[in-house]
Amino acid sequence: MNSNLCTICPRECNIDRTNQPSFCGANSLKIAKAMKHFWEEPTISGVKGSGAIFFSHCNLKCIYCQNAEVSHEGIGKTISVQKLADLFKQLEQSGVHNINLVTPTHYANEIIEALNIYKPNIPVVYNTSGYESAETIKRLKNYVDIYLCDFKYFDNNLAKEYSKAPNYFEACTTSLMQMRKNQPNDIIENGIMQKGLIVRHLVLPTHSSDSIKVLEWVKTNLGKSTIISLMNQYVPYYKALNHPVLKNRLKPLEYKRVINKFIQLGFINGFSQEATSASCEFIPDFKEDTQEFTY
Ligand code: SF4
Asked: Is 92 left (phi over 0), alpha (psi -120 to 50) or beta?
């Protein structure tokens, strides 16, 4: 068996991606930006910011992606595992509340190697699209403190059309269960999360019924104390600009319907967003001359 064959994520490409093109586009470790991030959930960003590392490439191909230059085109800089470990230290020394690994899935092996070199004394956040393999999540047990996980779709037809992931529901839900096993308790100290799981869901235009099914699944399988972040920030972007459904903005009533269901289902922990968050100004600038940290 060739251990270089990649099966890190549910696509299970089973190829040596160092010499063959992969679905995600990833080859060796590459990052697009490291920055203090102030626009995550308040328990993650706090007042000092979250130490975000945006990884290049992605194993989803969302047609509405706001960071397509990074996720689809793969802009960024190839770095060594040692440099990534050094970056953890650099971010930690800058005073941020946590190390926030954004779209980390396809580099899970390198992230584990880097955390074996240097494990910061602040929480490590695994900020993922939810298209994960439960096996990979299991391997992260002793490395990740907080899972910040999207649950994008209940209906796999939407996952297939919008993100090219026809088995998204199964992959995301089995991985969420494993994340909960890895971190069974949500621990928040002085308003800042130390351990646990936050389930994120972006409400899409015309699909509030799918959002409601997502909430019902979470209540049944993870319980009503689960922390849910209901995102109101959808902006038509990238290929969605020409899509008959996704070229539209989310209507306030659609978002309200989902929030009402959240309350009706008895959830007690969660975040909602003001309509003003649906703006391109919250998308990071990935140009190199805006880099705050060196790597
Ligand atoms: S991480 Fe990339 S190469 Fe590996 S299985 Fe997933 S899509 Fe394929």
From this structure: alpha
